[in-house]
Design a protein that fits this description.
By secondary structure, this protein is of the alpha/beta class. The protein has helices at 19-29, 50-62, 74-82; strands at 2-5, 8-17, 37-48, 66-70.
Length: 103
């Protein structure tokens, strides 16, 4: 399911995140302008295929749109980080803001 607002797109996935899921994401963001914002919500996905997560990293690297992926499990988050996806594009709940010091 997707919701489209002016120059923004929300893509919600559920079930299994497989190669077909990545192809859906890729096709939805392919024609968006460079300044468009895309939010990919994977919080309802119950099964992640590692190959699909690796393909998602390639899609994120190739797009001109600003993409934010939410709902990742720790394993998928780590995979995407290892594959070069910046933390700012990933689930903000897993990225701890930098602090000058901890108390």
């Amino acid at each position: 399911m997707q919701v489209v607002h002016s120059e923004s797109l929300v893509i919600r996935m559920d079930g299994a995140f497989d190669i077909e899921s990545v192809q859906v994401i890729q096709s939805r963001i392919a024609d968006l302008p460079g300044g468009a914002e895309v939010y990919v919500d994977l919080s309802r996905v119950r099964d992640f295929h590692d190959r699909a997560v690796a393909m998602l990293a390639d899609v994120l690297a190739a797009t001109r749109a600003r993409v934010s992926v939410r709902g990742l499990r720790q394993h998928q988050y780590r995979m995407l980080r290892y594959l070069g996806v910046t933390p700012s594009a990933l689930d903000p709940g897993l990225v701890r803001p930098a602090a000058p010091f901890d108390r």
